[in-house]
Amino acid sequence: MSAPPEASAIYEVADTDAMLALGAEVAALLRPGDLLVLVGGLGAGKTTFTRGLGAGLGVRGAVTSPTFVLARVHPSTTGGPALVHVDAYRLGGGAELDDLDLDAELEDSVTVVEWGEGLAEVLAADRLEVRIERAVGADAGADAGADAGADDRGADAGTADPRVLTLTGVGDRWSGVAWPAR
């Protein structure tokens, strides 16, 4: 069996505002049943990107990190798909991910799994992998502080903390997709 096709795009993201905007732009590409697997270190901007997705999808409720509840469902206010936001950081493996019963939500929702690399790929053959890394030359010492707050604790939206975000579409669903222009 051959590997699924992949298509990708790379973006330089200057700050929190740009991350939110890119998330909203990517939301325009999404449809019910899409799975996004977010990869990046602590405070990389995964939740900020997801907040942008939520804004672009027009979902209800504040999109915050679901670390302690593991999963949150944000219903659409526009008749579009709901956003299922999952944090797999504390999960011990695939069996615990299966216990969340995400299969029931996958068909009708956009499902985002933070810290899902190596776990969430079993949920769908077609998925969008979102890798967020600090830009080359960015102050690595700021890793735990500055942008961890940007995700959930209300850091200044315009604070410069550059990232490189790579979108990789895996599977036929993403073949020929027109990525957001930047």
UniProtKB/TrEMBL annotation:
Compartments, record wording: Cytoplasm
Transmembrane segments: none
Cross-referenced Pfam families: TsaE (PF02367)
Principal subcellular localization: cytoplasm
Domain of life: Bacteria
Keyword annotations from UniProtKB, A to Z: ATP-binding, Cytoplasm, Magnesium, Metal-binding, Nucleotide-binding, tRNA processing
Cross-referenced InterPro entries: P-loop_NTPase, T6A_TsaE
Family annotation (NCBIfam families): T6A_YjeE
Physiological role: Required for the formation of a threonylcarbamoyl group on adenosine at position 37 (t(6)A37) in tRNAs that read codons beginning with adenine. Is involved in the transfer of the threonylcarbamoyl moiety of threonylcarbamoyl-AMP (TC-AMP) to the N6 group of A37, together with TsaD and TsaB. TsaE seems to play an indirect role in the t(6)A biosynthesis pathway, possibly in regulating the core enzymatic function of TsaD.
Family the UniProt entry places it in: Belongs to the TsaE family.
Protein name in UniProt: tRNA threonylcarbamoyladenosine biosynthesis protein TsaE
